[in-house]
Q: What sequence folds into this?
């Protein structure tokens, strides 16, 4: 379950009372955005300006019902997370008891061989140092 689905489910559980309190004024809208056109777009715009095909000067986009519901769900999830300590699971610290790990036979043999090699190396080094 992704975050959007979870947020939507939480919003549904919160009830329709919350949904009636949220109005379209809560939705953030962008002012006019300017985009620098590419050379192909400039040529296309010049072609459209000289052709007899009617074109729109500006387009205003409004959110769909689905987008409004998704926004409401995200806002509800945010408010729920801020109000409920249970929702802040990421802030919990859990201390676990110490874990005892026992090495298997192969690990013990490898450790014994390593210690034996180290001991032999120390004896040889001391013997060379004394000569």
A:
């Amino acid at each position: 379950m992704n975050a959007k689905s979870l947020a939507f489910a939480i919003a549904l559980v919160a009830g329709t009372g919350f949904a009636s309190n949220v109005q379209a004024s809560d939705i953030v809208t962008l002012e006019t955005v300017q985009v620098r056109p590419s050379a192909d777009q400039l040529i296309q715009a010049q072609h459209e300006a000289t052709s007899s095909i009617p074109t729109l000067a500006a387009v205003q986009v409004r959110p769909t019902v689905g987008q409004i519901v998704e926004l409401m769900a995200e806002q509800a999830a945010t408010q729920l997370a801020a109000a409920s300590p249970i929702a802040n699971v990421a802030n919990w610290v859990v201390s676990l008891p110490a874990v005892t790990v026992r090495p298997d036979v192969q690990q013990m043999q490898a450790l014994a061989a390593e210690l034996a090699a180290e001991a032999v190396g120390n004896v040889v080094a001391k013997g060379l140092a004394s000569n």
About this structure: The CA atoms of residues 21 and 72 lie 10 Å apart. The chain has a mean pLDDT of 75. The two ends are 73 Å apart (CA to CA).
